[in-house]
Input
Amino acid sequence: MSEKLIDPIGRYRSGDFAEQRQEWPGLQREMEPVPDCGEASYVGTGRLAGRHALVTGGDSGIGRAAAIAFAREGAKVAINFHPREQPDADDLHALFAREGRDLTLLPGDLTDPDFCAQLVDDARERLGGLDLLVLNAGYQQAQKTIEDISHEQFDRTMKTNLYAMFWIAKRAVGSMPRGSAIINTASVNSFNPSGEMLDYAASKGAIEIFTKGLAKQLAQRGIRVNAVAPGPVWTALQISGGQLEGGVRKFGQNTPLGRAGQPRRTRRALCGAGRAGQQLYHRQHLRRRRRHRGGIAFQQRRGSMPRGDKSSYTGKQKRQAEHIEEGYEDRGVGHEEAERRAWATVNKQTGGGKKSGSGRGKKENHESARRGGHIGGSSQSHATRSAAAKKGWETRRRRGNG
Ligand code: NAD
Ligand code: MG
Output
């Protein structure tokens, strides 16, 4: 079966968004267009059957995408959200009910430490356990300068994004069984701060270190801790103060693909990090892949591919497989089958893993390159190969794929 190519540009929205603004926290049901959290597309295959998940900020956006994916993978799900977001939570509840699923709604304000502790206890009791914790709630208010950030805003940003994560994790870990997972939502701002999101970026940077440190600490208890770090995603966060005045219209257009991602694109990273079988997802930051899809996908910063030994494949082959796999998933093929087909296609097209070339070592190749000779069994000189690679990159960049 031949692979149908999907042009990532224009796949979702590639033009301007209508300028829009809502009072914080914003309702995604009133956004134009309404974010796509996988309501109509996610097909589960029971990969999280028997699991008990609590997702903060689960009414909308990335949290909603996680809640939908987890439930369709067989997990029991509870979501927390701010009481002002009841309408979005009710919409999700209705979707679950139509599918014959239960969704536990646990509204409350995460800036209150007592509520955070109570939330963990209530989720555990209502779900009959707690072994998958997605600490995803976030607060983002853009301000031009440091002088524009009030003490209250700074405090609220830190309390929502960082303190609540600490309060909830602290309460939860003692009773999470071995094999459990915690997934924190960081951001591309954890690594590359936007000037107009000083407090937000600082909190997200702290989440990266918090995640790594907690992962080290909990490894011996058999609890994996990871973070996802999305680029620009079309959610209520952005239209309720997350962008400067006038910034919504062009939101996401400064990425290589020239558009924002949709929340549904985060589901694979979240599901992957949550699964008990994914032992390699430990202390990882799954972050935006900068060159490939521009703000919507994630990659593991360190470590190997999630399943099997794919270390003999080149980065290009891995990206190709991931792209093909997503295409299958979008057409309703289950994750495991999509992955199998993707790798079968890559193997067929490239004849398997990395070519070892002439078998010469790195040092030898380097020596050869220095002398201007051939490297890696290629008939091109080092200089020619570099020029060709650069030209290819330039072409991809011009086309917007670079
Ligand atoms: P969203 O507005 O849909 O979700 C954020 C959620 O945070 C809200 O739904 C709300 O339930 C919760 N929240 C905020 N303050 C709260 C409080 N005091 N009490 C209880 N709940 C509270 O937007 P989203 O983009 O899906 O955000 C989810 C996470 O993704 C956030 O941590 C955000 O920082 C992160 N993120 C988003 C983007 C993006 O471009 N949208 C990029 C990188 C990271
Ligand atoms: Mg919301």
In short: The longest strand covers residues 76-81.
